[in-house]
Design a protein that fits this description.
mainly alpha
Length: 191
């Protein structure tokens, strides 16, 4: 397995996935959802979780896509919405689907079957990087604690561990090691 994604691979994923998804969510939900620290955290999350390679968790796990989102999370989000949890999730999903026209239309039907309908979307996470990126951003968006400052890589690593990889085998130290190329990529953009 390769050690780190190339600068070109990072640039393409950033420009073709992360930035368009953030711009769309910012237009549709809140301008605050799109920030440099969100961009850094999302690109680093994808690299830390999959090295931008895997559509399925290796070896034989349930996580899907480059952001390694587990199908149960999609179901949990649906249960949360159905119980009257933060309304922003439902609004975000309603507004997200025009961006992802290959996914089933969740706007039709009863709210009580939303958890099952969302869980079926987990198969799309294997190949739809926009969906994975949007779900990852909405997960981070749902957290009350604000994102750490852009460029504060140790704080971004701790945030990832606390809220994204909780219960996982990752550590902030592994995150920092796995995302060294992402850190260099953003340093080059600043320079």
């Amino acid at each position: 397995m390769r050690d780190q994604p190339s600068h070109r691979e990072l640039r393409l994923f950033d420009e073709q996935v992360v930035q368009p998804v953030l711009r769309h969510l910012a237009r549709e939900i809140s301008p605050a959802i799109d920030s440099l620290q969100a961009r850094q955290l999302l690109l680093a999350t994808a690299v830390a979780e999959s090295n931008l390679l895997h559509g399925l968790q290796v070896p034989n796990g349930p996580a899907r896509g480059r952001f390694q989102i587990e199908p149960g999370f999609m179901r949990q989000a649906g249960v949360w919405i159905g119980r009257g949890g933060r309304g922003k999730w439902l609004d975000a999903l309603d507004r997200l689907f025009p961006l992802i026209d290959t996914c089933p239309d969740i706007q039709d039907g009863e709210l009580e079957d939303l958890p099952e309908r969302l869980e079926t979307l987990s198969d799309h996470l294997c190949w739809n990087d926009w969906l994975g990126c949007a779900v990852a951003r909405l997960l981070y968006w749902s957290i009350a604690e604000p994102l750490p400052a852009a460029g504060d890589w140790p704080a971004l690593a701790a945030y990832w561990k606390a809220y994204y990889n909780r219960g996982g085998k990752g550590t902030p130290e592994k995150f920092l090691a796995r995302t060294a190329a992402v850190q260099r990529y953003f340093a080059a953009l600043e320079g």
